[in-house]
Automatic annotation (TrEMBL):
Start and end residues of each Tetracyclin repressor-like C-terminal domain: 45-155
Keywords tagged on the record: DNA-binding, Transcription, Transcription regulation
Signal sequence residues: none
Coiled coil: none
GO molecular function: DNA-binding transcription factor activity; transcription cis-regulatory region binding
HTH tetR-type domain sequence ranges: 2-31
Lineage: Bacteria, Bacillati, Actinomycetota, Actinomycetes, Micrococcales
Protein name: Bacterial regulatory protein, tetR family
Domain of life, source organism: Bacteria
Length: 167
């Protein structure tokens, strides 16, 4: 992404873009702030009565497309992070944290139900799926499918939480 590309897409001149944002990093920071995961707000999270049910209920076609779009954006931002470290925080806040926050809440609910032991590392486990999805999209350049996400839930998340996939 370049300022020229942004200006062309906005049908504006570069000077107009620079009047609004002093640098490319500022423009990217504002764009990232628009990507927050509204569909992962606490009051919209599923509560099916089981950790697996809750995690699977989050796997929706629009959520998969949205996650891949955000990660493609992130791939363009990664190169800029060394010059503008504040972008790392913005990426984490806009792209990783909404899913991790949802996972934390679902894991804590499972603990409260007695489905999961209270001694699991909720913080670490909450980052597993967002991290593996990012790896798949950014490094392997493979799509994120429903089957892939279900395999992460059944093969990684649930065993790590001490829950059997079938119950």
């Amino acid at each position: 992404m370049t300022i020229d590309m942004v200006a062309a897409r906005a049908k504006a001149g570069k000077a107009t873009v620079y009047r609004r944002w002093e640098s490319k990093a500022e423009l990217v920071l504002e764009a990232l702030s628009c990507l927050r995961g509204a569909d992962l707000a606490e009051d919209s999270l599923p509560d099916t009565g089981s950790l697996r049910g809750d995690l699977v209920a989050l796997v929706k076609p629009h959520a998969i497309v949205d996650a891949e779009r955000k990660l493609r954006i992130m791939s363009g931002v990664v190169a800029m992070i060394s010059k503008a470290p504040e972008l790392a925080d913005a990426v984490r806040t806009a792209i990783v944290e909404p899913r991790a926050r949802a996972n934390r809440l679902l894991l804590r609910r499972a603990i409260a139900r007695g489905e999961v032991s209270a001694d699991i590392d909720v913080e670490q486990l909450a980052l597993v799926t967002p991290s593996m999805v990012a790896y798949r999209v950014l490094l392997l350049r493979e799509p994120v499918t429903r089957d892939y996400l279900i395999s992460l839930i059944d093969g990684v998340m649930l065993p790590a939480a001490g829950v059997r996939a079938d119950g």
